[in-house]
Amino acid sequence: MPITKDVELGRDVRIFHPDLVNLYGCTVGDESRIGTFVEIQAGAKIGARCKISSHSFICEGVTIEDEVFVGHGVMFTNDKHPKATAADGRPQQASDWTLQRTHVGRGASIGSNATILCGVTIGEGASVGAGAVVTKDVPPGATVAGVPARFCPEPETTILSDRGSSEPLRKPF
């Protein structure tokens, strides 16, 4: 069953194709929207009025506060040292690894195909550019992009003497 009985769905949650998602043991807040081919694992928490776009993976240990945008194909991780087997060669079990938690603050925006490595906090109102790999905390309101994700400067305004006008310029980062 794509949505198990232990999933807690808030009021007016919209799941566009319920047969094409994989939700189990998670919580989704009021008025959130879940796209096609999304997986949300047990213990993950999605706040109210979030948009989780198609093909995204939100694993155990991830908390997403209210009003967060998660673009298409965003991947979260929860293990700093993933392995298929334990040191003795047997298949790895839950007791063989340590869950690393990740937190996304209210109103943050994560662009398509970003990868969020475990153990980080993305601050309130922060923006993560498409395709970024987030390896460190992102402060509230900051914008990051690239691999690994780096801070993007704020646009500056300058007078362009040959045009006689002001327009925003972005510095390379």
Describe this structure in words.
By secondary structure, the protein is mostly beta strands. The chain is built from no helices and 22 strands. It starts with 7 loop residues before the first strand and ends with a strand. Residues 157-161 and 169-173 have low confidence and may be disordered.
Provide the fold topology.
Blueprint: E1 8-9, E2 14-15, E3 22-23, E4 27-28, E5 33-34, E6 39-40, E7 45-46, E8 51-52, E9 57-58, E10 62-64, E11 69-70, E12 75-76, E13 102-104, E14 109-110, E15 115-116, E16 121-122, E17 127-128, E18 133-134, E19 143-145, E20 150-151, E21 156-160, E22 165-169
Parallel strand pairs: 1-4, 2-5, 3-6, 4-7, 5-8, 6-9, 7-10, 8-11, 10-13, 11-14, 12-15, 13-16, 14-17, 15-18, 17-19
Antiparallel strand pairs: 19-20, 21-22
Q: Helical percent range?
A: under 10%
Q: Numbering strands along the chain, what is their spatial order in the largest sheet?
A: 2-5-8-11-14-17-19-20
What structural class is derived from the secondary structure elements?
mainly beta
Strand content: 25-35%
What is the global morphology? globular
Number of helices: 0
Reading the helices and strands in chain order gives: EEEEEEEEEEEEEEEEEEEEEE
End-to-end Cα distance, whole Å, is 46 Å
What value does the average pLDDT take? 91
Radius of gyration based on Cα positions:
19 Å
